[in-house]
Amino acid sequence: MWGFYFNELLHSLPFFLKGLWMTVAVSGLSLIAGSVIGFVCGIIRASGNKILRFIIGAWVDLIRGTPFLVQIFIIFFILPSAGIELEAFPAAVIALTNLTASFICEIVAGGILAVPSGQREAATASGLSAYQQLRYIILPQAMRTIMPPLVGQYVLLVKDSSVVSAIGVVDITRVGWLTVQRIPEGLMVFGLVGLLYFVICYPLINLSNFLERRMAVTSTRL
Amino acid sequence: MISFRNVNKWFGELHVLREINLEVAKGEVVVVCGPSGSGKSTLIRCINRLEPIQKGELVVDDMDVHDKKINMTKIRAEIGFIFQSFNLYPHMTALENVTIAPIRVRKIPKEEAGKLGRETLTRVGLGERIKSYPAQLSGGQQQRVAIARGLCMRPKIMLFDEPTSALDPEMINEVLDVMRDLAKEGMTMMVVTHEMGFAREVANRVVFMDDGKIIEVAPPNDFFTNPQTDRGKFFLSSILKH
Amino acid sequence: MLETFNFRVIWEYMPLYLKCFQATLWLSAVSLLGAILVGIIACAMRLSQSRVISRIAGIYIESIRSTPLLAQLYFFYFGLPSLGLMLPEWVTGVIALTLNSGAYYAEIIRAGIQAIPYGQIEAGISSGLSYFQRMRYIILPQALGMTIRPMLGQAIVLVKDSSLLSLISIAELTRAGQLLTSDRFMPAEGFLTTAAFYLIIYYMLKGFSTWSEKRLIFREAH
After folding, report:
1. Contact A205/C70, CB-based, under 8 Å?
2. What pairs with residue B3 in β-bridges?
3. Predicted confidence (pLDDT) per residue in B79-132, tens digit
4. What is d(CA B15, CA C60) in angstroms, rounded to the nearest whole number?
5. Which residue of C has its CA nearest to B154?
6. What are the pLDDT digits (tens) for A181-198?
7. DSSP states of B21-76 as a string?
8. Which chains touch C (3 or more CB pairs under 8 A)?
9. What is this structure's pTM?
């Protein structure tokens, strides 16, 4: 019986690869959009005016304080009642972008605040504009603190993308869920699902660890 | 009490202890000195097997401490070890620091250990600070707590690894005073230190090391006034300059 | 959207929400205790002298961290029955949450342990404390102090992750929102109320985290 199901599973492999592609597409789009928004918000949170800082802080708390599943339900089911009709795919990308941006915002703000204030003072003293300070002095130093958790956040993004299967996006997890109805070998089917995620996430985790070690080395060299 | 017989140790390729032969008698105080990197800290760290040796024999209190079959925990309980950086447990008060091993290793009842701890801390001049955490104590006070921690096990031997090197100058004496008292009471001690005044006054013998070898062993007066080797002369002149 | 927000329906469903809020609380609490226990064991194994034991723990930790919780949940939900193990849904849910967070706790504890200076271990060795005594009295208490924040952070993640249990029909907070939505077609009322309950837990844990940080400050001065 096991062998029979294994064969069946092999035949569904193209279906799984389609799911893999969907996972990559949803995560990739959200990664780019989330990073851009996250960096902008992070820079504002670390420097900008009080009101903006407060608004961003409240937004971050709302996103951090609620499960992603609830967020995606809110976006998918409530926006239509406000007159914005959304397909599952764009709803998934919007929800994931929103989630990723809020976490990256915190990472970026933390990285900027970790740069010693003397650096900013020195840059001000030598007459650099606020933008120049950020661009040439603050961000390059902050990036060293930002990079490892940023890559870690991308791993979380790929994993969180599995939740979009709940609104019917046919990603790897959804493919597994559909397949297990036909091939009732849960360990085998979701073993394969896990393996596909592993293939994406494991290298990213190692990259994050590598960056962390490298950062530890460069900062002791200073 | 402690005898090194042809002891050799390597760190990878680096030969850090070469053919060490040394006997320390009961009640003797031996000061180990030498330039940094000469292997003096490694020498005493081998005694309670914080470092393993690769060749030779090291016998403490009639037991070969580098015998794999031996119960090292028991031997270590008989040897107090004082670190350069104190290594007090930051999450425990001074009293907890000194009583944890008596309670857990010696299985002394808590109250009795508490009494012993208070007495010992009083003996090193810290009777008032038993409830303080390490972060609330000065360096000199922390090192005295560390010595009390060693003494609470009623050890047969006390080893000191540069006990005053991490201290501000004004705190060195309060620690050396405690060590002087210990020596007077007949404790067997090996002390790695640059405090030559202390060596002259307290030590029975001075061991001078360089490059992993014991170069000279002599009573302190002989060594300080008339070193037998060039390396010894050079070392003395370099530390006596300041 | 907001002008038509129906508080009466929420009030009507409040008993259900409170029951489900309780369910979320105790499912999370049980999983949290289990996860910390699993984390301590996995971490001790990871740091073991034996290569084999360390490797086993490593494989467990890496495979959990490289795959999404939802895939793990389905792995157990669909997989255990095919092994002949018929467990109630909530048990499956608690197993998945425990094993998932356990891997993260193992890493958090390991980071805490490795941040302890080696001199602490040497001091313990020198006074004749055994391996377990050193762990119990010297290493773990300090590691716990240093890791209280990431531990509470992971607890927040765990509470939010428990929302995925709604996808295997366990009656908890998110499930309550789904029920209200499908009974009355009121997704806004359903999921915003759910979100509000999660925020209560989030702010409580966050507050506790800040408070404990302040209490531990003087010990860290070391």
Report:
1. no
2. B23, B59
3. 999 999 999 988 889 999 999 889 988 889 999 999 999 999 999 999 999 999
4. 40
5. C127
6. 888 888 999 999 999 999
7. EEEE-TT-EEEEE-STTSSHHHHHHHHTTSS--SEEEEEETTEETT-TTS-HHHHH
8. A, B
9. 0.77
